[in-house]
Design goal:
With about 425 residues, the protein is α+β, with helices and mostly antiparallel strands. The protein folds into three domains: about 20-170, no CATH class; about 195-290, no CATH class; about 295-410, no CATH class. It has helices at about 50-60, 90, 105-125, 130-145, 155-160, 160-165, 215-225, 255-265, 290-325, 340-355, 360-370; strands at about 20-30, 35-45, 65, 70, 85, 100, 175, 185, 200, 230-235, 280, 370-375, 380, 390, 400, 405-410. α7 (about 215-225) runs parallel beside α8 (about 255-265). The longest helix has about 35 residues, at about 290-325. The termini are far apart.
Length: about 425
């Protein structure tokens, strides 16, 4: 394969004509708290902040990059293309905190991607000459920096980590085609032959635990999600709810298994720390559970709406009940008796009218009787960029308690009592 230089010059850095700058990338919660922050990120000067953030937050290797590296000699590979490994002697001379870190420059990422591709190409005898291999390496680095080309996400995540930094680990069940034999081979390494492909279509049989079955699919999906890939499957082979099983029982149905797969995918930070796994589910129109499948998302959105509204209604009325107990000036336990505390009786009436459960009402009254002055009740919202629950602040608590749904704050006892 001959490679013609179009943007670079031999014996000159491909970055020579590109200006780079240092920038800062961060992610903040709506309340202003910092989720992620990385300073002194080196990127091409013309890159937008969005492009810089994607690289820093998604594609930089965050850990395991040794600060001192050495080349591994290979007789059949040009010296400029030798792979690198941590230099144990040089690292030993550094403070422990400075020995290992993460990527911080776009050049590091461009170098490891293009370098690894060139290394693989050289190993496979793709190039006509060494000059063609060098041109391939330089041209790709230039085009990556200029945003003229870009690979898929798993390539950014995984490719070149072994070649550039000597990062590796045990095999994860992936396979690759051996370029020497042409045979499918199970990888013994996580990153020497990484999983850099974008999306997969996987089959699933109507079987619970055997290979190719339902539970085996979750394992296969997790293997792909972990390295940043997406996956899709047609689940029409699974029996519908109530259909007979060979053992004499009845199937729990397609939807029960789809929900397991959705939760598993949502739990995996695909390829890094901030990406949800990409998962596609297909069901044929003639499947017995097709209507339930179509209504699935609608009903889940209705559940979310009910959670959001119900949690805020609960919080409003339970706080009002606590306030009615705390602000009462009655004697003894009169403040906690609806028959003797009109304000409490009124708030309980309003709460029941709003469908607040009696067990929550009684629990708040018990907390108030024990000396607690405020509660913090979980509430929900529909902001996709926020945590699932939020807490109302308690009033200067000095002691906290926890039940399954309510936390509360207590006055600090004084010498004369509460």
């Amino acid at each position: 394969m001959r490679i013609e230089r179009r943007y670079t010059t031999a014996d000159q850095s491909p970055y020579a004509a590109i200006d780079f700058q240092l920038t800062t990338s961060e992610i903040r919660n709506p309340d202003g708290s910092v989720v992620f922050r990385l300073e002194n990120v080196e990127v091409p000067e013309f890159w937008s902040q969005v492009a810089s953030d994607v690289l820093a937050q998604k594609y930089f290797r965050k850990a395991g990059v040794a600060s001192r590296l050495k080349k591994v000699e290979e007789e059949t590979v040009p010296s400029w293309l030798w792979r690198s490994v941590p230099d144990a002697d040089a690292l030993a001379a550094l403070p422990e905190s400075e020995r290992v870190g993460g990527e911080h420059s776009a050049k590091q990422v461009f170098d490891r991607l293009a370098g690894c591709w060139t290394y693989w190409g050289w190993k496979g005898s793709y190039f006509t000459s060494e000059d063609d291999a060098r041109a391939f390496y330089d041209e790709l680095r230039f085009m990556l920096a200029k945003q003229m080309v870009a690979p898929n996400s798993p390539q950014w995540f995984n490719t070149g980590l072994h070649w550039a930094y000597g990062i590796d680990g045990p095999g994860q069940g992936h396979f690759y085609v051996d370029w020497k034999t042409g045979k499918l081979t199970k990888s013994k390494s996580s990153y020497e032959h990484p999983q850099p492909h974008a999306c997969f279509i996987q089959g699933v049989d109507d079987d619970l635990v055997n290979e190719g079955g339902i539970m085996d699919l979750w394992v296969r999906e997790a293997r792909l999600f972990k390295y940043g890939s997406g996956t899709g499957s047609n689940f029409s082979r699974l029996r519908g709810e109530g259909e007979k099983l060979s053992g004499g029982g009845r199937s729990s149905g397609l939807m029960s298994f789809l929900k397991i797969g959705d939760r598993a995918a949502g739990a995996i930070k695909s390829g890094g720390t901030t990406r949800r796994a990409a998962k596609m589910v297909v069901v044929d129109a003639d499947h017995p559970d097709i209507e339930t499948y179509i209504d699935w998302k609608v009903k889940e959105e209705q559940k979310v709406a009910a959670l959001v509204t119900g949690s805020k209604i609960n919080q409003k009325h339970l706080k009002a009940i606590m306030k009615a107990c705390v602000n009462c000036e009655g004697s003894g336990d009169d403040c906690f008796d609806p028959e003797k505390n009109p304000a409490l009786r009124r708030e309980i009436k309003f709460a029941r009218r709003a469908m607040v459960q009696d067990n929550l009402i009684k629990r708040v009254m018990q907390f108030a009787k024990q000396g607690y002055t405020d509660i913090s009740f979980d509430t929900y919202d529909t902001d996709w960029d926020r945590k699932r629950t939020s807490r109302s602040p308690a009033r200067t608590p000095t002691t906290r308690c926890r039940s399954r749904t309510i936390s509360c704050a207590r006055w600090k006892p004084t010498a004369t009592g509460i």
